[in-house]
């Protein structure tokens, strides 16, 4: 703009100079008829007898130049006005674009803070048994940022087109500002890509958490529905469907109980029961679970003078339990396929732990649970020397590892938790060979024993 103004000023000075040099010329009235007289200014004291050069040719030659200069001045003035308008328009566009970029950066920073706050809130709320609304899908935020980015790119293209038009007309657009805009757009695009990646990760995490929560809720509801159905169908003669025991008084191969339900595939389990036995040597087999191809999928046995053993996939771990004193004892066994880790509880107290018991082995589904006998084939071929002698009640099984506080609550009769895989319900237990069911209120009976 400075160069254009300087050029215009020089042109005006040049025209004024030319017009000033011809200031001495006086033209006659064009309406005059006949001879023409030309008056020439003579300095004081000059010799008026000197011949005076005729200025008619000068007047005639100066007229086309004057018109050309006037036309040039008008064109330069119009060019300056056009360039001034272009520069003002570009300055307004640049200010608006800078404001838009600042708002986008502030919005991106605010979104990052909000995302962290929501993640912290979800971690605090995680684990609550609620069916609240799902978090809002961040797709809307991604689309909004994408639209903003596209708008900024369009505005930059418009600026480049204006720059091309300005170059044609002679206006110069600052290259530093164009480079600054490109760098800021590049930085904003990088931030947008990072934000999109974070939102995708957050969306995936939310989906996984929601799916896991939904699965846990569905499992709980299914267990409750099965429990209600069993209670409705049960015609038990006992005070409550779970207040009974099974008595296996003889060491034979034909007294046993059978669970009607089978097990699903499991990667962990907890099995709890109340036992009362004074048999010697060894209490025998409180329960066994066999599947096709593996009769010893899960077995709890005390045989001869050996300690109580837990078998998983025919692999053995010895448990530090002692229950052959003729009193009621509450025992719980937990196991997980991860590293084959197991725990053994007696009367609410954890007495032992171990690992490497059939690690990474999943419990196979579709087998048979027998109470009081060890299976050599699925559902049969019992050995009388391995039979359980005594009484058994509240046999429950879960597909997860229970917390110590839950196990302690059941052992102390301060809580009752039916198994979500195998609950102790009258209608779910069959007895054979002379085994009997009898009413039992375990907490009162245990208090009487002690």
TrEMBL record:
Keyword RNA-binding belongs to the record: no
List the signal peptide residues: 1-28
Q: Which organism is it from?
A: Astyanax mexicanus
The chain positions of domain Pentraxin (PTX) read: 242-443
From start to end residue, where is composition biased (Basic and acidic residues)?
Answer: 111-127
| Gene Ontology MF terms in the entry | metal ion binding
Region (Disordered), start-end ranges: 111-138
Q: Which processes are annotated in GO (biological process)? A: regulation of synaptic transmission, glutamatergic
| Cofactor requirements of the protein | Ca(2+)
Q: Which Gene3D superfamilies match?
A: 2.60.120.200
Enumerate the SUPFAM superfamilies for this protein. Concanavalin A-like lectins/glucanases
Coiled-coil spans are: 142-234
Q: What is this protein called?
A: Neuronal pentraxin 2a
**PROSITE patterns found in the cross-reference section:** PTX_1, PTX_2
Q: Which Pfam families match?
A: Pentaxin
Which keywords label this protein? Calcium, Coiled coil, Disulfide bond, Glycoprotein, Metal-binding, Signal
């Amino acid at each position: 703009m400075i160069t254009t103004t300087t050029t215009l000023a020089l042109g005006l000075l040049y025209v004024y100079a030319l017009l000033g040099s011809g200031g001495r010329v006086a033209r006659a009235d064009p309406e005059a008829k006949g001879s023409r007289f030309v008056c020439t200014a003579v300095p004081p004291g000059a010799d008026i007898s000197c011949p005076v050069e005729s200025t008619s040719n000068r007047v005639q030659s100066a007229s086309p130049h004057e018109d050309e200069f006037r036309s040039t001045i008008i064109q330069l003035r119009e060019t300056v006005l056009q360039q001034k308008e272009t520069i003002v328009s570009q300055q307004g566009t640049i200010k608006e674009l800078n404001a838009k970029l600042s708002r986008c950066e502030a919005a991106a920073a605010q979104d990052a803070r909000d995302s962290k706050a929501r993640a912290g809130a979800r971690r605090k709320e995680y684990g609550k048994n609620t069916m609240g609304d799902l978090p809002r899908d961040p797709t809307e935020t991604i689309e909004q940022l994408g639209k903003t980015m596209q708008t900024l790119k369009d505005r930059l293209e418009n600026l480049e087109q204006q720059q091309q038009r300005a170059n044609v007309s002679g206006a110069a657009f600052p290259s530093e500002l164009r480079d600054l805009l490109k760098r800021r757009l590049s930085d904003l695009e990088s931030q947008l890509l990072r934000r999109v990646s974070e939102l995708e990760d957050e969306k995936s995490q939310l989906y996984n958490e929601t799916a896991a929560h939904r699965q846990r809720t569905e499992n709980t509801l299914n267990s409750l529905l099965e429990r209600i159905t069993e209670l409705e169908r049960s015609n038990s003669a006992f005070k409550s469907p779970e207040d009974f025991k099974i008595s296996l008084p003889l060491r034979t191969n034909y007294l046993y109980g059978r669970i009607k339900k089978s097990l699903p595939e499991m990667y962990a389990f907890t099995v709890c029961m109340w036992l009362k036995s004074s048999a010697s040597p060894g209490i025998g087999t409180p329960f066994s679970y066999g599947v096709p191809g593996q009769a010893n999928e899960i077995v709890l046995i005390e045989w001869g003078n050996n300690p109580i053993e837990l078998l998983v996939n025919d692999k053995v771990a010895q448990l530090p339990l002692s229950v052959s004193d003729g009193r009621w004892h509450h025992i719980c066994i937990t196991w997980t396929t991860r590293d084959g880790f197991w725990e053994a509880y007696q009367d609410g107290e954890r007495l032992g732990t171990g690992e490497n018991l059939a690690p990474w082995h999943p419990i196979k589904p579709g087998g048979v649970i027998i109470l009081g006998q060890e299976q050599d084939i699925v559902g049969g071929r019992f050995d009388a020397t391995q039979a359980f002698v005594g009484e058994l009640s509240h046999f429950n099984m879960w597909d997860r590892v229970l917390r110590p506080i839950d196990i302690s609550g059941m052992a102390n009769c301060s809580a009752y938790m039916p198994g979500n895989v195998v609950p102790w319900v009258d209608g779910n237990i069959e007895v054979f060979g002379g085994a009997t069911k009898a009413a039992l209120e375990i907490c009162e009976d245990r208090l009487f024993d002690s």
